[in-house]
Design goal:
Length: 902
């Protein structure tokens, strides 16, 4: 720490930081544009000028840029000095010369950083009366809108997009005295994190194109803290509602999880909530029914007894526990395939019984050597991929340290580092987006990927099993990876269920355990397929396959399925047989699907926007999401439907929870693994009312004038301290309950600075979430002894496995309008040699035969695929329910001759 003086006030500061970072952390207001806590300083905008003095006797001083000046011991500055104030005002005046007068119609209006900084400098009028510079706007796809005339040339967009996120199709183009930020031609932005331009841009150049279809000002949005439900990372979000419809999702800062950013699937996938397939009223035998009719029928069905329940990895802990309580632990089954349940159970066993710790995403970012085993991280867990992109900068920071360059001085750091990269090794079945920054890549079938992992473990610790039959090249690769991991300060192993291989997961664990065995502790991060995969698995449900035996052996009368389309979990014929063998099928879900169509009774389940609940992410962190509005239909949380059904049968049923807090307490009492779950967020009774609506929220009467000219009483929320109004009681809001970030003078997303312990650091009061998973301090470590044999292609057969896509592979987001436009067309990918030997070319069609299923797809030739392997998009409708990987046969589909052909 250093002692500095700000306007003659003595303050303590971090000497490793710059003055802008320090002043903002201490609560001072200094305008800025080009600087960002994650991107560092480049001194481009000249907006953060302050007066610096040599000592207390210096009265003249000099103007310096706060973002470019270190907070060294004894530094004296003045923010309020007239010269500094005048300089900052002049910079704003210059920016305003060409900025359009369109604030009232700009999508960014009311949450614009430029507006905030303009007001902060005291700017009131423009002195420039000549013509303004104008640009042509580009079409950038269905997710991001472009309005180049609002640009102030701060460079944030290209710095984030190219340097941080790794994109290359957005750039700064110079023509004489003009700079244009865009693509070389109109077209969809190709980077998976392009939506962050909406928040990174301090003006309205890049805006949310999905919001534009149902636009609402920020101050007219009712908001709540929430979680992304489109992968297993648990990224924090703020969701906004108006007129009973979900309008948008923006990032909600969590230092330990997603930080400042979201992936495009997480930001724009919300539109499934307003899909035409939404179930908003109960359905009885396919016909609309009232809530009372539905509950009467539900009670009658339950009263017959012999009820089985199928949980879901996309339902909350509370809803899964309510179903488990209703049917009993012995009648509670996993709503995922046996193979996936086994993989998830193995991951949890490794993390809970082994020595390797599961890292937060912040810890992932700080790792200095990474080995990715069998995962396409960008398409399965996108924000983790964004964090991994930053890991290659960790080791080269030694160069920066030797040159005494501060890490925040971004341009100088990059100039010193040049192309130096830290070790990142990727072994996967096909090429991934991270390959472009990897030290070494290895593409092979899952068993061969596992063999490489086991070989790395043996190279680290000779006590680990030997892998027989490796080629000299693979032995050298394993030795190089082992050397890099063992020589790192913070090594990380990343794996998951994408290869659908038990061996791959065991190999990843083996590498981490080997590092721990040689006193070099490693972090071990598994990706999980869905938002609550770990949460469901921690409840130890019975395998899905056992439900078939249970139905036949116990003559079950009723099957209850919550938030799950079972046709995605197993063979269609087996699922159809399951429904035929029970007397009643009751389904609770958000969207119509094949499972709801087979149900006698369908109950509308609330989404993350209409219900509260807890999810457990891949780290093992339990976090809470909160409903943003009270739906005007019969939609409600799944656990409430189950509770009301139980009470309809027996008014003294043990499911008498009146609130989410009571349900959470019951779960923590019954299941030891969730004992600390009550700490996720303070109980409702402990905290006063917290407003979901900003102070400027308008139209509370007029929006319902067609019903009544009197303002109705806001609905009560029995499950949280959040109020459906502007009512606000507590002086300090717990971070897990803060709906949005706002401070006087800070209306944009940059207001986050005001709620952090220091800028870019943890939130004051602690980041949301409680870790449920910790490694054993003294584990009984035993290496896995089974190493798979090498993969050998079969004659006339291919190993079919899923290829993941950020758009289209995840179930719910594929129903969002913008995301659906970017999903790939169905295809089967083949190695060029395999395609040639099969007599097919790219663009031609083949018939795929797998067990009792056949379907036809167009061929895509990919040189990155191993021989003997074929890939299809994960989530492909034609392959729903298939357990992959599995061997299949391919046969060309002859094209019928066109009419008139000879």
């Amino acid at each position: 720490m250093s002692t500095i003086y700000i306007d003659n006030e003595q303050r303590q500061a971090d000497a490793k930081q710059n003055l802008l970072h320090v002043c903002l952390s201490l609560g001072y207001d200094i305008p800025y544009f080009c600087w960002h806590p994650v991107l560092g300083s480049v001194g481009a905008c000249r907006q953060c000028a302050v007066k610096q003095f040599r000592d207390e006797k210096d009265t003249a001083g000099k103007l310096v840029m706060a973002c470019m000046t270190p907070a060294a011991e004894g530094t004296r500055i003045s923010i309020a000095d007239p010269d500094a104030v005048g300089f900052r005002a002049a910079v704003i005046q210059g920016l305003m010369q060409n900025h359009p007068h369109d604030c009232p119609v700009c999508d960014e209006g009311g949450e614009c950083h430029l507006q905030d900084m303009t007001v902060m400098t005291g700017h009131r009028s423009r002195e420039y009366s000549f013509g303004k510079r104008t640009f042509r706007n580009q079409y950038l796809g269905p997710l991001v809108n472009h309005e180049m005339n609002r640009c102030i040339q701060c460079q944030r967009c290209v710095r984030f997009y190219r340097e941080y996120a790794g994109g290359d199709d957005l750039n700064a183009f110079r023509l004489r005295d003009s700079i244009y930020y865009g693509r070389h031609e109109d077209g969809v932005l190709e980077n998976e994190f392009s939506g962050n331009l909406v928040e990174v841009c301090p003006t309205g150049v890049f805006t949310d194109a999905t919001l534009k279809r149902h636009y609402t000002r920020k101050w007219d949005l009712q908001m709540a803290p929430s979680l992304c439900v489109h992968c297993g990372l648990g990224c924090n979000t703020t969701v906004g509602e108006r007129y009973g419809t979900l309008r948008r999702v923006v990032n909600h800062y969590n230092h330990e999880v997603n930080g400042y950013f979201l992936c495009d699937r997480g930001r724009f996938g919300y539109e499934f909530v307003e899909s035409d397939l939404r179930i908003r009223h109960p359905l009885l035998n396919g016909e609309a029914a009232t809530k009372s009719e539905a509950l009467e029928r539900f009670g009658a069905i339950l009263s017959e007894g012999n009820v089985l329940g199928i949980g879901s990895p996309r339902a909350s802990l509370e809803s899964n526990f309510a179903l488990r309580t209703l049917v009993g632990p012995d009648h509670f089954f996993a709503g995922i395939s046996d193979e996936q349940l086994q993989l998830l159970s193995t991951m949890l066993h490794v993390l809970r019984k082994g020595p390797a710790r599961s890292p937060s995403l912040k810890e992932v970012e700080q790792s200095d050597a990474v080995f990715v085993l069998g995962e396409d991280v960008t398409n399965v867990a996108p924000i983790m991929a964004l964090k991994l992109r930053q890991t290659i900068r960790q080791a080269p920071m030694q160069i920066v340290e030797k040159l005494h360059i501060p890490e925040w001085l971004d341009h100088s750091v990059r100039e010193a580092v040049q192309d130096a990269k830290g070790p990142l090794f990727i072994a996967s079945p096909y090429a991934t987006k991270l390959d472009e920054i990897a030290t070494t890549t290895y593409r092979a079938a899952p068993d061969d990927i596992a063999r490489l992992g086991f070989a790395v473990a043996h190279a680290i610790d000779g006590g680990a099993p030997v892998v027989e039959g490796l080629s000299p090249d693979l032995e050298k690769m394993a030795a190089d990876i082992a050397s890099a991991l063992a020589g790192a300060k913070r090594p990380l192993i990343v794996s998951g269920a994408s290869c659908c291989s038990q061996y791959v997961i065991e190999a990843a664990a083996q590498v981490a355990w080997a590092l721990c065995r040689v006193d070099h502790p490693a972090l071990l991060s598994f990706t999980t397929p869905e938002c609550n995969s770990f949460g469901l698995t921690l409840m130890e449900p019975r395998p899905l396959s056992e439900i078939f035996h249970a139905i036949k052996g116990e003559t079950a009368n009723t099957l209850i399925v919550i938030e799950n389309d079972l046709h995605r979990r197993g063979p269609v014929s087996a699922i159809a047989s399951l429904f035929d063998d029970v007397g009643h099928v009751v389904v609770l879900d958000h969207l119509n699907n094949a499972t709801t169509e087979a149900a006698e009774l369908v109950l509308p389940a609330g989404t993350f926007a209409e219900a509260d609940g807890t999810l457990v992410n891949n780290e093992g962190r339990a976090q809470r999401f909160f409903q943003v509005f009270d739906p005007s239909t019969e939609v409600q949380a799944s656990w409430r439907w189950l509770r009301e059904g139980a009470i309809a049968v027996d008014s003294k049923a043990k499911m008498l929870w009146e609130s989410l807090d009571e349900l959470t307490t019951a779960m923590a009492t019954e299941l030891a693994v969730f004992a600390s779950i009550r700490q996720v967020t303070p109980p409702r009774k402990v905290v006063g009312k917290i407003a979901r609506e900003p102070n400027r929220y308008s139209g509370r009467t007029s929006m319902l004038a067609n019903i009544s000219v009197h303002e109705p009483k806001p609905p009560a929320d029995p499950d949280s301290a959040l109020a459906f109004s502007m009512e606000f009681d507590p002086e300090t809001v717990p971070p897990s309950l803060r709906p949005f970030f706002w401070a006087p003078g800070w209306n944009s997303i940059q207001a986050t600075n005001k709620f952090q312990s220091e800028v870019g650091g943890p939130l004051r009061g602690g980041d949301p979430g409680i870790r449920l998973i910790e490694p054993l301090s003294e584990p009984d470590l035993k290496y896995y002894s089974m190493v798979p044999t090498a993969f050998h292609p079969r004659p006339n057969e291919w190993l079919l496995f899923p290829i993941f896509h950020i758009f289209g592979s995840e179930e719910l987001s594929s129903y969002a309008q913008g995301i659906a436009q970017l999903a790939p067309a169905p295809y089967v990918a083949l190695n060029p040699i395999d395609a040639s030997l099969s007599g097919v070319n790219a663009g031609e069609r083949v018939k795929i035969s797998l067990e009792n299923s056949e379907f036809i797809l167009e061929v895509v030739v990919r040189a990155d695929l191993p021989r003997g392997v074929a890939g299809i998009p994960a989530g492909l409708s034609q392959a729903e329910g298939m357990i992959l990987p599995a061997f299949c046969s391919l046969s060309p589909v002859l094209t019928e001759p066109s009419r008139g052909a000879s």
